[in-house]
């Protein structure tokens, strides 16, 4: 059941902006996107919007536990404790799906962003955090391992921030927590950085395994900014962007180079024909001038001869 528009606007007016960082999820074009949140709310209203629900496009608003609108759908599963799990799905992603979204239950909104990349790209999420704030990144693994890793850059050749067999460890501003999610049957390694500064921006790795050589790893980017709506940090280039740029440059060369050769050839031929035409005209002018000159000489000679003959006859 959908909520009446007037009542929906009342909900929106009471909706508070969520605190904390936002995550940009890089997903390949043509794939499906899924995200879940544990939400402690007993309210029945669920929603999904593009951008801010007040000024953006309202995709779904319902009191049902499941609703669908085209490629978008939401599903809410209640738990024994107050609240439940809200899942958002976007099927068959296209480039037009890129952008910011807001979903939630009642007055518990969550913001996230999707960036649809080319099939050659790498699905590495970007976590945007405020300077001086905290970045908390969840890494999920399908199986349990004893050793946990948290690294800046790659763990091999990078800076290992934490290497431990404990489920909770802190080292200066860095810490990890590890737990099993029995409901979803997966293992959660959460990497945390407190008191963020601009130099924290960059690539990070979390891993789970008996050793670095055997560890399952997940990469993610952290972007520290003083304006969450306009991140100003510099991250590693998106592989899909560089691939697309190289591909576009190659296509440009393949298409434009033959065209340029043809154009140059046409111009050279035109210039050659123009030269030949001018030379031909000059030759014609010279020939015409010579003929005219010869005619004038002939006429003049003929006139002089006739006068002499007339004078001789008179004598």
UniProtKB/TrEMBL annotation:
Signal sequence annotation: 1-21
Coiled-coil region list: none
Principal localisation: membrane
The Ig-like domain, residue ranges: 1-115
GO cellular component, one term: plasma membrane
Spans through the membrane: 248-271
Keywords: Membrane, Signal, Transmembrane, Transmembrane helix
GO MF assignments: transmembrane signaling receptor activity
Location relative to the cell: Membrane
InterPro entries: CD300_family_receptors, Ig-like_dom, Ig-like_dom_sf, Ig-like_fold
Protein name as annotated: Ig-like domain-containing protein
Species assigned in the record: Channa striata (Snakehead murrel)
């Amino acid at each position: 059941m959908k909520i009446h528009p007037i009542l929906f606007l009342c909900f929106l007016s009471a909706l508070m902006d969520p605190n904390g960082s936002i995550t940009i999820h890089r997903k390949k074009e043509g794939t499906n996107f899924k995200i879940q949140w544990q939400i402690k709310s007993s309210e029945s209203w669920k929603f999904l919007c593009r951008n801010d629900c007040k000024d953006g496009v309202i995709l779904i608003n319902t009191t049902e536990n499941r609703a669908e609108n085209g490629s978008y759908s939401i599903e809410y599963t209640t738990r024994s404790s107050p609240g439940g799990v809200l899942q958002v799905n976007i099927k068959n992603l296209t480039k037009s799906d890129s952008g910011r979204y807001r979903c939630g239950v009642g007055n518990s909104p969550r913001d996230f962003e999707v960036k649809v990349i080319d099939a050659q790209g790498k699905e590495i999420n970007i976590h945007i955090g405020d300077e001086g704030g905290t970045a908390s990144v969840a890494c999920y693994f399908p199986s349990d391992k004893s050793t946990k890793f948290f690294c800046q850059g790659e763990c091999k050749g990078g800076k290992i921030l934490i290497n431990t067999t404990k489920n909770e460890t802190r080292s200066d501003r860095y810490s990890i927590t590890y737990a099993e999610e029995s409901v979803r049957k997966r293992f959660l390694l959460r990497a945390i950085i407190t008191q963020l500064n601009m130099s924290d921006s960059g690539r990070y790795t979390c891993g789970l395994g008996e050793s670095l050589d055997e560890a399952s790893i997940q990469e993610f980017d952290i972007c520290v900014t003083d304006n969450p709506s306009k991140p100003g940090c510099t991250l590693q280039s998106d592989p899909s962007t560089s691939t697309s740029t190289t591909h576009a440059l190659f296509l440009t060369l393949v298409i434009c180079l033959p065209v340029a050769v043809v154009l140059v050839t046409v111009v050279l031929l035109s210039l050659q024909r123009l030269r030949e035409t001018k030379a031909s005209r000059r030759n014609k002018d010279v020939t015409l001038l010579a003929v005219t000159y010869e005619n004038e000489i002939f006429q003049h000679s003929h006139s002089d001869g006739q006068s002499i003959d007339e004078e001789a006859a008179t004598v």
